[in-house]
Amino acid sequence: MKVIYLHGFASSGNSSKSHWLREQFSSSEFEFISPDLPNNPSQAITFLDNYLGKLADQKVCLIGTSLGGFFAACYGGKHCWPAVLINPLADVRDLIDSAMGENVNYATGESFVMDRDDAEALIGLSESMCKPEAPSLLLLDKGDELLDYRKAITRYGSESRVSLFAGGSHRFDHLPDAMPEILSLLT
Question: 2-186: CATH homologous superfamily?
Answer without folding.
Answer: Alpha/Beta hydrolase fold, catalytic domain (3.40.50.1820)
